[in-house]
Amino acid sequence: MSLPTRRIALVTAFPPGRQTLNEYGLHLARAFADRLDVAEVVVIADRLPVPAAELDLGPKIRVRRTWSFSALTSAPRILSALNSEKVDAAIFNLQMASFGDRELPAALGLLSPMLARLTGVPSGVIAHNLILGVDLEQTTLKGQPMRQRLVKLGGAVITRALLAANYLTVTLESYRADLAARYPRAPVLLVPHGTFDTNLRPLVPASARQLRIVTMGKFGTYKRLETLIGAFRRLRPTHPGLELVIGGSDHPNTPGYLAATAATCTDDPAIRFHGYVAEDDIPAFFGDARISVFDYSATTGSSGVLHQTACYGAVPVFPRIGDFVDVCRDEGLDGANYAPGDAEGMARAIAGLLADPSRADRLATANRAAALEMPISQVAQVHIDRLALHWRDRPADESPLQAAG
Hints:
CATH topology of the largest domain: Rossmann fold
Order of helices and strands: EHEEHEHHEHEHEEHEHEHEHEHEHHHH
Number of helices: 15
Oligomer: single chain
Structural class: alpha/beta
CATH class of the largest domain: Alpha Beta
Strand content: 15-25%
CATH superfamily of the largest domain: Glycogen Phosphorylase B
Shape: globular
CATH architecture of the largest domain: 3-Layer(aba) Sandwich
Largest sheet: 7 strands, parallel
Distance between the termini: 10 Å
Helix content: 25-40%
């Protein structure tokens, strides 16, 4: 008997756009398209601020750009697209600021999974973070207790709205446990972040890599560079040839942060500001480096950059706080640690790895193995299995197992 084929909508930021989770959306779309039981993946994506050619993704992936970051109309535009496409189900690839860097557009956009279900489109949510797991004092809301209370109240409302989808997945056990305690009957599943690239290049030993430290992210809020640059300057006198490559862009709430930081480093050519790291450049960015540093004062979910670091064999150096602790416990990833804001401690952690290539290789090998335990294809399988319970046209006598293929 031939497999039933489904048309799935994936609501996500998407390349060549540069909003958060765009790379995850790309790899998830490819994972669905690779399945024999999926006829088409319709990506309901963010509009590009500057026109650019769409990626060539083959005949089974079609990108429809309908919503705009920080617009108040994202939810109705998404619902209109889902209605006109008549897909079998929709998956929403989200974090709490997916639809905007201000509270109102962000919140209104996050209502779309619930509204999709209410209008007849089965919906699943991948929640990469939740307001309940964020230390707001470490964000741009620092020192604003009234606004923090408002955000927490709004976060509780939005969390309930997300749980009104047919199901919700989280990437950390701590999130699942917290939601289970607050909402015991909610359809919440733990599904780890997943590994993007199963055709990985060979793992290069530390001694054969560039004497290079890398970091990547959207900088200026809880992801910053002052501690890292301070640690790097401490290391330079004893590590000739060491270089620091900074990849990424400003966080939307801190425009100009990278330019201002770069202006303080013009006297040191060993500190290089790479800018945005395109998807095709990710393997070389991490695969040629010895160490990947996370200069964080807080965490907001399972880190995609940490998983990329693990896949390509750079050894992570991160503060043992929040979600880093959970990822180490849940997924078996590890690295060298330092106290947040402690440049001297970070420098010691980096120096220890540079001085001990055997330890670096052991960490890199173990991290690669741990990351590969959950390829993105398995993440896609989980969602197909869940959606099989809710296909909008599933016959009453068709079992979920048959529907999932």
